[in-house]
Amino acid sequence: KSVTQLDLANTKKALIIPAFETLRYRLSFPKSKAELLSMLDMGTLFTFRYHVWTKGHAPTNFAKWRTATTPYRVEWEADFEPYVVVRKDCPEYDRRFVGFGWNKVAHIMELDAQEYEFTVLPNAYMIHMPHAPSFDITKFRSNKQYRICLKTLKEEFQQDMSRHYGFAALKYLTAENNS
Q1: Which PANTHER family match (predicted)?
Q2: How much is the pTM?
């Protein structure tokens, strides 16, 4: 319904699906927002990556989402990496970011640079289930060279953003330096 009502086909909108997670390997998926909120309050669910990477989903504004009944806009912030529904002709993920690190952050930054509106859906949600660490996150955590390469790719991406979007892209460089 939201895709039609918000005219996703004819507008530059990125519909944000609020993300949650559980530490349990078995979970009865909540059938309603009310049930999900109850599970949050009981500590069965958490906002996604709350314990390790709050910045990634904080702009979703989960406190507002709890009581929202209509879609609401949020602004881009550094390291924002929500799960989104977008038109198929939106910018593609940057191919530099394969494996672990910065693929969603760079994509959301590009959407913001192209003036996409970030709209949080009040009755949609997803739940991340626990799983073994991926090969790539293991490499990121254990290999200094991997982290150095990722830092180099981030800097290259930001320079490309500056060249492509000019003055408007300065906020991405400033945000990165402050995070």
Answers
A1: GLYCOSYLTRANSFERASE-RELATED, XYLOSYL- AND GLUCURONYLTRANSFERASE LARGE1
A2: 0.89
